[in-house]
Amino acid sequence: MAPVIEINGLSKVYVRDVIGFENGRLRVRLKDRRTVALKPLDLTVEEGEIFGLLGPNGAGKTTAIKILMGLHFPTSGSARIMGRPLEDNSVKAKIGFLPENPFFYDYLKGEEFLDYYGQLYGMDKATRRRRIPELLELVGLGHAGQLPLRGYSKGMLQRAGLAQALLNDPRIVFLDEPQSGLDPFGRKEVRDLILSLREQGKTVFFSSHILQDAEMICDRVAILHQGERIAVGALSEMLSAKVKEYEVGFSDVPHELVEKLREGASRFVERPNEYLAVYEKEEPARESVRAILDAKGVLDSFIARKETLEEYFIREIEGKREEARAALANGGNG
Asked: Is the pTM of this model over 0.85?
């Protein structure tokens, strides 16, 4: 089966004109002010998966999504959605899209807002009446359908935008930074909603710089840095299966033992009568557990911690920065 999203060599370079004065007159002087927002990108997304496009702000995530949505034109390369080129308008009826900074007519009530978009989708009145209350409940706004959008919090507006993206029951949902500006409870709601979409057989393609949330829900991810794809794959393949360190949490132990365990740990965190000792090797960690139990102390936790997506991300980004610094140094020496 062909991927539902195919991206081949997609790139975007912005060339800006410089406006200035010349001989006392305002005129446009064309200069080669080039900004490479996206270097040639190759990606495939399979049907029914949650795919995360990750990276820091300015990495090229929004540019890639806007090209896929037809809002920006690529400088080079091509892409297909459900086997059709981006110019094929028939595809638009089968996708949902939530931009990073959506605009809302804030004088509309929640239900009116969705009804307006339902008409743009060409949905008949009976379908809109049935679908809108269902979606408001789904995104946690069942109580706010009759409230004007100007009275919504940022989190509520984000949920309204999600409802809009799902209004036409799309096969693929594109979400640009869907958890931006949400509190932890709101972020959890969005995560749960994305997982429920996968259970319905939908494909979710979203961008984010919140790596912890992406690690919880993504089947595969791609990492962008300065417009370049530096990694792609399943998290189980990208993250090291090797245990990175061992964390031992404990309490109610004699002061002498606390000091002894502190000396043997690579890191040590202390709170009132609560301690966390971190070891790089398994045997010292197990020895500390035995000592805690022999002293009749309380073992609160023993965790063998593997590499997280955030640690992988930082390691890859730092590697790229080191390469860039080395290349710059070599160029300067030459």
From this structure: no
